Every structure is written in structure tokens, then in C-alpha cells.
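We emphasize that the prediction below concerns an isolated chain of 309 residues; any contacts that depend on oligomerization or on bound cofactors are therefore not represented. The input was used exactly as deposited, without trimming of termini.
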Amino acid sequence: MITGGYGFIGMYVTQRLLADRHEVFIYDLLPNTPEGFEHTVKIRGNLTDQKTLFEAVYANKIDQIINLAALRNNDSKKFPYMAFQVNCAGFVNCLEAVRIFGLERLVYASSVAVLGNFDYYRQGGYDLETLYRLPENCAKQPTNVYGVTKLLNEQLGEQYSKIYGMKVVGCRLPLIFGAGKKGGSKTSVFNEMIELSYHGSPVEVELREERFNIVYVKDAAKGVYCGATAKDPQSGVYNICGATVDMLDYADAIREILPKADITLRKKPGATTPVNTCIDSAAAREQIGYTPDFDLRAGILDHIGLVVK
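Result of the prediction step, given as a C-alpha cell string:
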């Protein structure tokens, strides 16, 4: 059962599981089943409604839960109480369902928002200028509500695993681009750069000198899929990496594919640098078999193909 299975990442995870002939139940607030997902079993419910969640798990003989439902970054900042209810209390409901009904495992999406910013790691002695990679077990210092909720989930997952011997697998995702992502967030710019350029419209973006890790949505979904289907993964949190680039690298990759792209990179006085998203996914490769299928150029090309369709 996938909570939030009709969301941005959830749709791609669902499609991958269906293609692999898994029986997929979607626990989601959407009133109707989206086109193309007729082979899923839809269960309308709120993640904070423990009774409905438990009844769905029991009645449908669920083997495992993939928890992708969450309040996004901007919404979490506006509504911190609701962010705690959905992102944390809802997550505990999933943990309790796995514990009570003896499910095989819980897989969930975490975020690099748990990490914080570059200066914190520089002060801690990390050589970010050379390596630009942080392991799963580095210290965390989230700087926003969303990051705090995701860090609490990582810690709760660890404790449930230790206390009850449960299999709890977290997939820590970086910045994500790809067709189907809703606008209105700081990271929407990565989709907008591709889509506006394809349609011949000029786009102006902030020139960020910091490097960041960005993953194509199909690879983000692959990471979650690997967490759900790996034979016997260790409980823990796994970084799901894509390409480590800066904004100029990203713009140049678009220009290479779309030579007429009119992208202006401009420094904005006082602009904040992005949170640190430079992560290493060696553990994900070794433990759950995750390696990205798309480099940056291939992801951009596939994104264009889906948008054009």
C-alpha cells in the first residue's frame, strides 16, 4: 500500500510496481482515480486517520507500506502544526500499522532538508569544496519545519526498528525534477527552466554558486522501489543520489539539448544559498541495489518527451 500514491513521486513508484506485476493499493485523499492508474485499488483516506488506515491494511491483507504522503516544504512553513500532524503523526500511524499487523517492512521518503546548510558542515570539518558528498550518518541540523519533521521521522524509524525488530527503510531524496511536479516551490525552477526553454520562452534564474545534488523523478522512484523490493535490506536511511552540479552546469545541460534556450543567470543581492544536497549514495548501491538510470542530460530529454506528450 502506497500512501500518497497519486502524488508526484508516488505516481512513478506506482507505475514501476504495476509494471513489475505487484498488486498496488493507493491510500490517498484524491476523490477519483487518475487516468492510467485503473489497475490500482484506491482507498480514500487521510494519513492522520489511524482507524481508516488500520482498517485498510487489515481488510486488504497488505504486506508492506510505502509512505510518500507529506505536507510539502512551503506548506509546512505556513502550517507547522498541520505539518507535524501529517508528516510525523501520520508517519507514526504507518509505523504502528507495520508493528501491529506484522508487515514485512515500511519504506518512506525522507529528504535532504534534514541536513541544513553548507556552513554547518564546513565548520564541522567536511571538505565540501573537494568532495561535495555527505554520508547518511553525518550530523543533521535542519533549518525549516519540513526538515525538522523529516528528521523526526528518521529518528522514530530508527527507534521502532531497534525496539520492535521492524524493517524500516528510509529513502533520503535530494532536489527532484520531472514531469508532474506541482509549481509554487523553490525547486519548481528546475522544471520551469526546461519547459520554458522548450517552448521558446526566456527564463531568468538566480545564479547559485553552491553545488547541489538533483535527481530525475524516475530515479527517485527507483530508489523507493529498490527500498521496497530489495531482498533483505538493513533498516536505516539511504541517500538516493542523482547528479551533483551547480546552476551553470544545469543551465548548460539544457542549452546543449535546446540550443535556442534563452536562460539568464543573474546574481541576486542577499539571496540565500540552497540547503546542502550533496550526498553520497554508496550505501544505497550496496544495500538496496540503487544506481541511477538517468544522467542529467538523459533526465532532461525524458522530461521533455513526457511534457510534449
